[in-house]
């Protein structure tokens, strides 16, 4: 059960609230206040977490800074050893963490377990990759540049940035937290985690696994609370050396306020699926279902718009409709394909997009149905560019189909978006696929498969409003370090070697 057994110390049974993590200890906030976490399925309070104060954030930053100085001197193999231990503990306790994901964010049970196991694998891989890339330096000599003699030797290596602030999103609060935590720690940084409200309790359980692994006190902290109280205070804190954020529009606001520190941001997407006449339409339909409706479409890499050639559109729409009809709809505990979206405000936003599409003449392939936060899967055909759903990200199980008359039309729609995270193209002609990939202004283009973030060591990045910098284990380790060089100056030789 959540908050019991090995996780008992993270829960205050008297106040029915989860504690926050600072200086290697589980603490109650001096604010005496808590933040309620609403179960998307029942729409009732499921958990409560501490509402931390700005003073507590200051204390966390102070201890993170001093802990980092010692951690940076810890041998690389020892850092990796602790990460492997944390990964093992995380996977061992996958069930209670998955239970939190089911209750907090309505993630289907099997997907919740998969997220925790994937997170453990990510931590282990990161430990190995960190040892490999951080164990190497570079040696340069001066006579490779015109006009210089061999009188300078330059030694360069990667050193940590300091305190990393990690802010993951609600939809993958464990996986997208460890994708920031593990690279930060292997690189010698300390880490302050601000989890999303929906997903906080799963994140606190995950942090406890790192606590049980025996990391030094103060190296990892986890503060919970209202964004209005500690959000800007955290992101603008002078103690922060780097921010890794995954989420939506908030990231753009953070980037404008953060100052001169490295930023790693993965924001929204309107991932386009371009379907050519020669595509395998059964393959396309299967990937549209997987890409558009997995976790009720609440994924940044979900297929968000289908751009299909008119000549095959009718056939494709019929194939997708048949598959939509087979999707199960209901509570996450029953492992349904479509579960409630995360909040009432999210459901209301999705409904607004649907109403706009209806007014403007989109073809509804299913009847629109909603019960509280639960929205039945909906395919909208004959969507036009004047409809909001053509451009805005629903983050729900509603997918627009736009019929196109040329590949250029599809590319133009894709590139006219404010977003540029991922996209995909379906065709049997690899030459066409490569040309279209080159023309699509997105961070990643998948050929004959739906967009996806993993495997977690692949580079992952977006253009325009979809983000700054690149993720993936290797890229994250690299961006959470900086280059330090030492130059040895030799005396100028007074003679020529014979």
From TrEMBL:
It is an enzyme of class 1 (oxidoreductase). Pfam families: Aldedh. It comes from the Eukaryota. It is found in: Cytoplasm. It catalyses: D-glyceraldehyde 3-phosphate + NADP(+) + H2O = (2R)-3-phosphoglycerate + NADPH + 2 H(+). Keywords: Cytoplasm, NADP, Oxidoreductase. The keyword NADP applies. The active site is at 266. Residues 26-485 form the Aldehyde dehydrogenase domain. GO terms for cellular component: cytoplasm. PANTHER family: ALDEHYDE DEHYDROGENASE (PTHR42991). This is NADP-dependent glyceraldehyde-3-phosphate dehydrogenase. The lineage of its organism: Eukaryota, Viridiplantae, Streptophyta, Embryophyta, Tracheophyta.
């Amino acid at each position: 059960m959540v908050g019991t057994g090995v996780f008992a110390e993270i829960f205050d049974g008297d106040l029915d609230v989860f504690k926050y993590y600072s200086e290697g200890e589980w603490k109650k906030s001096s604010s005496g206040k808590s933040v309620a976490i609403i179960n998307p399925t029942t729409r009732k309070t499921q958990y409560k977490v501490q509402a931390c104060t700005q003073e507590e954030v200051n204390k966390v930053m102070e201890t993170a800074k001093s802990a980092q100085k010692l951690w940076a001197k810890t041998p690389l193999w020892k850092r990796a050893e602790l990460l492997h231990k944390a990964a093992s503990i995380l996977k061992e306790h996958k069930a209670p963490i998955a239970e939190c994901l089911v209750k907090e964010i309505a993630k289907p049970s099997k997907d919740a377990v998969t997220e925790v196991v994937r997170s453990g694998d990510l931590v282990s891989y990161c430990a190995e990759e960190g040892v490999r890339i951080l164990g190497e330096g570079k040696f340069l000599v001066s006579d490779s540049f015109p006009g210089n003699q061999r009188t300078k030797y330059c030694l360069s290596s990667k050193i940590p940035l300091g305190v990393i602030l990690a802010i993951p999103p609600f939809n993958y609060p464990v996986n997208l937290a460890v994708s920031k935590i593990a690279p930060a720690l292997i690189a010698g940084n300390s880490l302050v985690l601000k989890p999303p409200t929906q997903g906080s309790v799963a994140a606190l359980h995950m942090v406890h696994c790192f606590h049980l692994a025996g990391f030094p006190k103060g190296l990892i902290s986890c503060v919970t609370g209202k964004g209005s109280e500690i959000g800007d205070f955290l992101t603008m804190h002078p103690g922060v050396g780097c921010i890794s954020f995954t989420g939506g529009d908030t990231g753009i606001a953070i980037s404008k306020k953060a100052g001169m520190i490295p930023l790693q941001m993965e924001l929204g997407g309107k991932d386009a699926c371009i379907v050519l006449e020669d595509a395998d339409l059964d393959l396309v339909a299967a990937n549209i279902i997987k890409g558009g409706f997995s976790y009720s479409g609440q994924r940044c890499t979900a297929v968000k718009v289908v751009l299909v050639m008119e000549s095959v559109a009718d056939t494709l729409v019929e194939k997708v409709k048949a598959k939509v009809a087979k999707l199960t709809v209901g509570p996450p505990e029953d492992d349904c394909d479509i579960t409630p979206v995360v909040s009432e405000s999210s459901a209301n936003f999705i409904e607004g997009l649907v109403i706009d599409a209806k007014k403007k003449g989109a073809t509804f392939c299913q009847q629109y149905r909603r019960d509280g936060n639960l929205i039945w899967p909906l395919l909208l055909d004959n969507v036009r560019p004047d409809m909001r759903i053509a451009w805005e990200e629903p983050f729900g199980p509603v997918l627009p189909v736009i019929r196109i008359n040329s590949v250029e039309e599809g590319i133009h729609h894709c590139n006219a978006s404010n977003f540029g995270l991922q996209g995909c193209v379906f065709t049997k002609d690899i030459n066409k696929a490569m040309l279209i990939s080159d023309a699509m202004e997105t961070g990643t283009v998948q050929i004959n498969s739906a967009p996806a973030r993993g495997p977690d060591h692949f580079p992952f990045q977006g253009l325009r409003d979809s983000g700054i910098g690149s993720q993936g284990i290797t890229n994250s380790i690299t961006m959470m370090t900086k280059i330090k060089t030492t130059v040895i100056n030799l005396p100028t030789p007074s003679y020529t070697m014979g």
